[in-house]
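Record type: ASSEMBLY
Status: queued
Input:
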Amino acid sequence: MELEYSIEGGDFSKAGLASSEVKKILKQVNIKPEIIKRIAVAMYEAEVNVVAHAYQGKMLVNIDPSKVYIRFEDEGPGIENIDQAMQEGFSTASEAVRQMGFGAGMGLPNMKKNVDEFFVGSVVGKGTTVELTTYIK
Amino acid sequence: MDIFEIAKQVEGSVICQGNNSEISVNRAFASDLMSDVLTLSTDSLLLITGLANMQTIRTAEMADIKNILFVRNKKPTTEMLAIARQEGINIITCSKSMFAACSILHGAGIKPVY
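Status: finished
Output:
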């Protein structure tokens, strides 16, 4: 099953809408609740990151009997130093993002913690790609 | 402790009952920082927060948190309540500070996550 969602940068009123829809679909295909929770947390963190940092982006989801693969592609400023961004507590988030309860520098490390395979790649001035893979069997 | 007893303890009200089957909690976590809430793996958790925006509800939805206590007289919007009902999340509000609410509920037997 393949799904695609658009994510608008800066629009916090809709942040989490795509993740909410995907979580409902994961429940329908009978994945274990504890696995769904981990996927949900990771994809929601990634979706919030797109809203917080990028101009626009998309979320591509591929569900097959063995794994759930989710790729986020955004157009935005990109990440200058990925090693630094992966450190807990490092953040470049704006005050507006912090007021929404995010921007504590926990997003990327928390995504990595909650999935089996994690990839983040970025081109400064162009955008960022995040891949989250979770094996379900 | 169930949500009605929690509301009684903090002199608050249950303003949204989205879930009838998971109304009891053993542990609570208090934070206005949703990033920290998303690092928890505890089940049957009460989220105590003063952050009343849509991301609070989305965070609870993603982290399978079924019970939220809003402190400092923060009121969720109609849209937040609609999503909470849809996602099976119970909401209590009270006018206590976060420290006061935590102190009362800890004294009444609710344990911290860590």
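Annotation: The helical segments of chain B are 3-9, 34-37, 54-62, 78-86, 98-107.
Annotation: Residues 98-107 of chain B form the longest helix (10 residues).
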